[in-house]
Amino acid sequence: MKGHFIPEMKERKIPSERDQKIYQKAKEDLLDFLYGGITGRFQIAGHRLISKWAQPYASGGFVLEIGSGHGHHLKYSKQEYKHYIGLDLESRFLSNLHHRYPEACLVNGDAYALPFRDKSMDCILAVYTFEHLRSLPRCLDEIHRILKPDGRLLVGLPAEGGLLYGLGRHLSSRPYMQRKYGIDYDAIVQWEHWNTCNECIAALHDKFKILKVRYIPFLIPSIHFNIILIMKLIPKYEA
Question: Does residue 196 lie in a domain region?
């Protein structure tokens, strides 16, 4: 497809089979750890800004969260969504989310084949998810398909590839995981974080128009001096 974003193929360290098994068991611990301390405050600020932008859809619209995980968005959002749908591929994450929020509508589904009708969603949330997707354009095609023409895509991106974000990882999650679990965390990160922040933005430009961007915490419009990037987008259509 002309102009379609194709992620750059990079050389990646491949985690050992041992480290991958350990990481799969430790992933929940890491998610909770990342929401503590200074980095966690910035991530929570991202959730709260997204919930503010989602407010017009909270009382009546259908709001889908892709990669709902353990329910961190519901935990830190200031909104109560009347028609919230949480989608995740990992059933154990959905099990935990259901335990925490038994009233939430949850779907065990694939981001590359969303099980929803065309133009059926008023608002779609993807909070710290797109960096993990190995075929991000396929997911964005699906989001474009199911999002209403006047709907909103609200995205939270870690500033992966930025200097400040890299420094934060070097001082926090990297020593924590290596000390506690004895794994090569650099290899795990390369295998888990498939897209940099700029690569996610390039992919989004293909299908969506950016309406608003907010940088956290310093508001300087650069990924190198921030930790989180929050975006509000609307679908593009060919003339």
Answer: no
Do the domain assignments include residue 206? no
DSSP-H helix ranges across the chain: 17-34, 37-53, 55-58, 72-76, 91-100, 136-146, 163-171, 173-181, 185-192, 197-207
Residue 14 lies in a domain: no
Domain that holds residue 92: 22-183+218-235
Rounded to an integer, the average pLDDT of 195-204 is: 96
The pTM score is: 0.91
Q: Is residue 157 part of a domain?
A: yes
Beta 228-235 vs 147-158: how paired, if at all? Answer: antiparallel
Amino acid in the structure at residue 116: F
Tokens describing residue 199: 């690569």
Contacts of 235 (CB under 8 A, 6+ apart): 144, 147, 149, 151, 153, 207, 208, 209
Q: What is the pLDDT of residues 44-90, one digit of tens each?
A: 999 999 999 999 999 999 999 999 988 999 999 988 899 999 999 98
Q: Please give the structure tokens belonging to residue 134.
A: 């190995």
How far apart CA 73 and CA 230 sit, in angstroms, is 14
User: Sheet containing 121-127: which strands, arranged edge to edge?
Assistant: 105-108, 83-88, 62-66, 121-127, 147-158, 228-235, 208-216
Q: For residue range 133-187, what is the model confidence (pLDDT) as tens digits?
A: 999 999 999 999 999 999 999 999 999 999 999 999 998 899 999 999 999 999 9
Measured CA to CA, the distance from residue 65 to residue 192 in angstroms comes to 20
